[in-house]
Write a structure and sequence with these properties.
Blueprint (H helix, E strand, L loop, with lengths): L1 H8 L5 E3 L22 E3 L2 E7 L2 E6 L8 E6 L3 E3 L3 E3 L12 E3 H11 L6 E7 L3 H10 L3 E7 L15 H16 L4 E3 L1 E7 L6 E7 L5 E8 L2 E6 L1 E3 L2 H6 L3 E2 L2 E2 L12 E3 L9 H15 L9 H13 L15 E3 L4 E2 H9 L5 H8 L12 H12 L20 H6 L9
Parallel strand pairs: 1-2, 6-19, 8-15, 9-10, 9-15, 10-11
Antiparallel strand pairs: 3-4, 4-5, 7-16, 12-13, 13-14, 17-18, 20-21
Helix pairs in contact: 1-6, 2-3
């Protein structure tokens, strides 16, 4: 929205392709938002393929057989495809009643639904706190928030604090205290138990590397888990954008390595809503041939501190049993993944073909990063390129009938 508004103010003709039925995305879900009246808003739409600056779009509910298609040839494109929850696997994480933190918050904010009556929130990062608040507001009893890291990493970044963030932190701290929701640091849910659904979890006290020091078991009927976020890079990779440290590499104007393609938000680095909006404004103005006076310094300082204070430590790999599912879509166990690496699966494609990890409905979006980290640890080498995990020429699922409708370029006679 910020990019679209900035580009419109600069006089550009703007089309906003929005995957949601209403403006606002994940952050403003349930709160009405507006964009510049000059912006053409394509709601409930998805870019399923990108060829240069040509966008192939389908509009309509994802499960509807009546979606319509269109092709847009742009002079410039701003990619702001965001990110989704990352969850590291643990025994029982595939049981009904185990939710990603984002899914639990979405149900609470958009539909007023609590995922359970007795809930534990676990993972790492400040996102766990608003998730806990959302659950409490819809009637759930949050037994505790498990933060796998110590939280002391923020002390290394005193300049990252700003009045807005400090006020937000104080709000959540007050909420937890008022509602008597304990915050357990250096603690994580390392196993979920149950037959048809989760009925209990094992909570572990962790060492600094996330290996287990001590455990205890408590009864629950739901678990919300979030270990940071994974950027959605399909379109950026399809466009040929260079990546750096797992994100789209951009300059100070939001320009990628591909002329005419700009990027903003979580695909350039996880930094929260304030940074995403600021980057959108800068990239939108640049894409329209203008400049923004928006400063990104403070927000990017916070993003760097966030990454340093809430890393994913390798000790999570010791939580797994041979039977733990690594890829839920194809039901690939940790034991099967290890067997694939024993066959010298030393690349993403080979790993997929030998183990079937990442070949299911999610196409590796949920399991790819975890699986490759496990394989790299076992082989004692980083064997995959960053783009390989996100190379999906068809970025979102479409029907064969929809693909057949796609207009083709006129063919010249040989």
């Amino acid at each position: 929205m910020a990019a679209a508004n900035a580009a419109a103010r600069a006089g550009a003709e703007v089309v906003l392709v929005d995957g949601e039925p209403t403006l606002g995305g994940q952050y403003y879900r349930g709160t009405p938002q507006r964009v510049d009246p000059a912006v053409e808003h394509l709601a409930e739409s998805a870019v399923w393929a990108m060829e240069g600056l040509r966008l192939h779009i389908r509009t309509g509910a994802a499960d509807s057989p009546h979606r319509t298609g269109t092709v847009v040839d742009a002079d410039a494109v701003v990619l702001a495809t965001g990110a989704h929850d990352r969850v590291v696997p643990f025994p029982g994480w595939d049981l009904p009643g185990v939710y990603t933190a984002g899914a639990a918050q979405t149900l609470a904010k958009s539909q007023g639904i609590a995922v359970g009556a007795r809930v534990v929130v676990s993972g790492t990062g400040p996102f766990l706190l608003p998730v806990a608040e959302s659950l409490v507001k819809v009637g759930a009893r949050v037994l505790g928030v498990c933060e796998a890291n110590s939280g002391t990493g923020w002390l290394r970044h005193p300049r990252a604090a700003n009045p807005g963030k400090m006020a937000e932190l104080a709000h959540y701290a007050g909420m937890l205290l008022k509602l008597r929701v304990p915050l357990w640091r250096k603690t994580a849910v390392v196993a979920a138990h149950g037959t048809d659904r989760v009925t209990a979890v094992t909570i572990a006290r962790l060492n600094p590397d996330w290996t287990i020091r001590a455990t205890r078991r408590i009864e629950v009927d739901a678990v919300c888990v979030g270990h940071g976020f994974t950027p959605r890079l399909e379109l950026a990779v399809a466009a040929g954008c260079a990546l750096k440290d797992g994100f789209v590499a951009v300059d100070e104007r939001g320009a990628t390595s591909v002329p005419g393609v700009y990027a903003a938000g979580e695909i350039t680095g996880i930094g929260g809503a304030d940074l995403a909006a600021a980057e959108g404004e800068v990239a939108g103005a640049a894409a329209a041939g203008s400049e923004s006076t928006k400063s990104l310094t403070g927000a990017r300082r916070f993003a760097a501190a966030l990454a340093d204070a809430h890393p994913i430590k390798p000790g999570w790999q010791t939580w797994l049993t041979p039977e733990t599912l690594v890829c839920r879509c194809e039901e690939v166990t940790y034991q099967a993944l290890c067997a694939a690496t024993d066959l010298d699966a030393a690349g993403v494609r080979t790993l997929k073909l030998t183990s079937r990890v990442g070949l299911g409905l999610c196409q590796g979006r949920m399991c790819g990063r975890n699986a490759t980290e496990l394989a790299a640890t076992r082989l004692d080498q980083a064997f995959f390129d960053e783009a390989a995990l996100h190379r999906r020429p068809i970025a979102t699922p479409i029907r064969l009938s929809e693909l057949a409708e796609t207009p083709l370029e006129p063919q010249e006679d040989p």
